[in-house]
Amino acid sequence: MRVFERLFAEDLKGELCALLQDFEPDVIGVSIRLVFGDELDPQAAFGTRHTDLRPRVREIVEIIRQVSKAVIVLGGPGFNYYAVDWLRYLDLDYGIRGEGEESFPLFLRRFEQGGDLGTIPGCVVRKDGHFSSTPPRPVEALDGTPLPAYELFGMERYAARGITPAVFAKRGCAFDCTYCPYSKIEGKRYRLKSPERIMAEIRHIQRQSPNQRVMFCENNFNVPKSHAEAICRALIAEGMGIRWGTGDLRPVGVTPEFCQLMSDSGCFYANLAIESASAGMLKRMKRGYTVGQVRESLEALSRSGIPFGASLMFGAPGETPETIAESLRVLGEYAIPNGVWVTIGIYLWTDLQDIVGELRGQGAIGDQDLFSGQVYLSPALSRSYLEDLLIELKAKPGYQVQVNKPAGLFGWEGTPATKGKEGTHVCA
Ligand code: B12
Known about the structure:
Elements: H1 12-23, E1 27-31, E2 36-37, E3 51-52, H2 54-67, E4 71-75, H3 77-80, H4 84-90, E5 94-96, H5 100-113, E6 123-127, E7 130-133, H6 155-160, E8 166-167, E9 170-171, H7 182-186, E10 191-192, H8 195-208, E11 213-216, H9 225-238, E12 243-249, H10 256-264, E13 267-275, H11 279-284, H12 291-304, E14 308-314, H13 321-332, E15 340-344, E16 346-347, H14 354-361, E17 375-377, H15 383-395, E18 399-403, E19 425-427
Parallel strand pairs: 1-4, 4-5, 8-11, 11-12, 12-13, 13-14, 14-15, 15-18
Antiparallel strand pairs: 2-3, 5-6, 6-7, 9-10, 16-17, 17-19
Helix pairs in contact: 1-2, 8-9, 9-10, 10-12
The structure holds cobalamin (B12).
């Protein structure tokens, strides 16, 4: 098996063709991470970060087709939401939704030995112009999955770019936040990796990578809290000298004792995923915690010495200038060493987000094509208010703002906004 990493390609066509001609694979898996992503779109107002990445995937697939007869199979987090849309867009026959550890090897076995590819969990197949799919099946025992084949990736290249190796300590999410699809994708029941397995994974990373840091990449690192504590204790006991971070700490149970444990076990960074500090919005977004718990967490982290940041998400249904002011007031009371990341506008990725069903129910979006990118922004946030807000946020030390795709929003850039019923604005 060989891996081609698009991120490091300087001459995409030349390098990819050379690899394919040398290796001559029978099957090529293409992992799609993002549909709309991280790069600055120079056309967009106010430093929005939306860029349509689909043409880049198409470019890769077209290069493959020019030099290889291999069967192409799509997968990855950017594929899961859209499946058939991607196969149509790229004119391909196979993709696998969901977790790949069991399904992809099964696909390869059946491909080689014969058998029905269509019944493989998560498989989406086009046959005679018709698509059929089998529901994904989550991997039950994560400890039983092989350690990631980092030796195929050249980990030093990632380290040189400052990209930290990632560890998933569990899958699953018990919560129902209205804008997030995780609990539906991963299931509500937690499937935990044992601390022993996690330590083995970290040792494996240490052997392969010059990077002596890892990021825990699952949602809500501190849920279940006992699991997070067990990981911290195991890290202390192992004494590996590894430093770890998490991009998603839930503001519940972040006590001084818990912070101490995080700190003692080598935590170099934690993002407190607050999203809102308005009581009304926390309820509306079904975040499942209170402003009091947000404050307790900020208090404990502030005293812990852990370099932490916080994130906010503005613009969900019910958001008003007042609810935003409430959130900013709370955060303004604390020193947040690594700053605050503010996202404005809620991406509508998939029907698995409750907010999408809610908006469809209100007639605010119909059978709209989510694959082309849709963003929701509460209609109570007027254009002039948003312009002032952006100026206010950018003037705050340590605040970073991401505006999700305002193209067409309230006439920014000259395109009229799509106005839904009941005063909801949905921007395409
Ligand atoms: C960790 C993470 C991050 C971390 C990355 C840290 C790091 N060191 O890697 C950080 C915080 C930096 C990040 C940033 C962003 N992220 Co992010 N991130 C994730 C997250 C939680 C996990 C991705 C990951 O590492 N997975 C590890 C691998 C092993 O698991 P996996 O990807 O799920 O792969 C499995 C399957 O997909 C499948 N599979 C994967 N590839 C293939 C290939 C084939 C052929 C097959 C058959 C199967 C298969 O098998 C794998 C094992 O089961 C996902 C959400 C999620 N739970 O998937 C979002 C996610 C990928 N991120 C997302 C976004 C939007 C972003 C940002 C653009 C956020 C922003 N700023 O707006 C940036 C972009 C960064 C960039 N340039 O790429 C979105 C993408 C949505 C989309 N459809 O485009 C996701 C899906 C979250 C969401 N909103 O739903 N992210």
